[in-house]
Amino acid sequence: MKEIKITRNLVRDLIKVPHLKSEKRDMGTLIVIAGVGGMAGAGILSAFGALRSGAGVVNLVTKKDNFLPVNSFLPECICRDVDTYVDKLVEGRELMDAIAIGPGMGTDQSSKKILEKVLRNLDLPLVLDADGLNLVSKSKVLKKLVKDYPGAMVITPHEREAMRLLSIDSGKDEIKRSEVALSLSEEYNCVALLKGNGTLVTDGKTMYRNTTGNPGMATAGSGDVLTGVIGAFMARGIDALDAALLGAYLHGRSGDIAAKELGCFGLIARDIAGNMPFAIKEIVNE
Prior knowledge:
14% strand; 47% helix; 10-stranded mixed beta sheet
């Protein structure tokens, strides 16, 4: 399969400038289910990435214990209690446009039940990452639910997570990343974004390779930011493949902008999220 490079010219027309009468609901409402496993930072970074990518409303569904650190760092984010709010979601009592789930979620039975409930009862655009993927790799039930999910879906594994999702022995001879990405898309009937140097994005028909990013982005929380970025674009009504292409390019470009100012040593995930508006500005202003 021929690879297409993800460049500025490829993504520049995928995101539109808001019209003058835009309201926050017009910019998309994103539900982020994250930090449930005690890792509040993962939820914060996903929500931060989403807000800096233009989401109008971001609801972080997490444990009540996380509310104080979340709102101390990110007062623009709305905190929701995971123990009650997920039921409201699946019962259709809450307005939303897309879901991002997985970062810092944990892999215990409680988290598994939350993910299963979402996959069984909702059909909104969804981006699945991190512990969400780890839960899927361990459960035949969840694997089937992902394959049969009625809405658009983007999964964003790194290589180790991808191997687990495909039940590939990590000790085997090296497998081409493009083959792994394609297998993920075909196996799970979704858009697959395989993170790493030269991030790959595929819908099973076309393979794309990203051209932005730098080694400084190999830092804890970088992937959590990407989850929020893609979720924000899906909440804006951008289809799954285009949202993944935008996410890959702009996440990397934002990291490049941060590295130009800070260098690659010591670059942290919040620097990537914080520079997202500048990366977006480069393409919407052309």
